[in-house]
Specification:
Oligomer: single chain
Helix content: 40-55%
Structural class: alpha+beta
Radius of gyration: 19 Å
Amino acid sequence: MPPSPAVIATLRQVPFFAALPEAHLEQLASTVRQKKFPKNAVIMSQGDDTDSLYIIASGRIKVGISDEEGKEVILSMLGPGQFFGEMSLVDDHPRSANIETMEASEFVVVNKDDFKRFLSQNFDMALAFMKELVRRLREADKKIESLALMDVYGRVARVLLDMAEETVDGKLVIKRRLTKQDIARMIGASREMVSRVMKDLVEMNHVSFRGTVIVLHENLAGSAR
């Protein structure tokens, strides 16, 4: 049976798979599995062994870590076309974070052996994979710098800007549900502090709300410096 066009389209959204020739992409698509999880399902936990790359076909997940007391820090939130599990495919170490669905989600799952085989056979894919790892490392460095050097206002503003998407009329908005508790867990602050900051940002006309949609105004960027 030929691979599903939807699976091929999902693979093509991943930068390093997009570098594969079409025939190889179809061949890879014929080896993958598809998995579905309901909302609030734990896909994997810190310390779990894993042998697969997960690509989000639909839905949304959060990547987080927890301390011994159960306090959670959200490292990132990912949606369709994004992926996780790539580091374990390279270094064979257990999972370094918890992965949980934020809504019902579907995944395209690539086995480690298949991934390594295609990586070794395609220089362009290997180069694109290295570039993606470097990009993620730079992104992590930026987050560390933000936590170290910015005040809470700057950290909240940075999260909002990072999660925003541009509309056709040039406005920056956050359409995905983002709670104050989510923001607090992403920046290492209390929910109460985030609530105060968000209230101030609204009063200063840096952000506004249209129902559940957060609209970012042009002057917000100055708060993230």
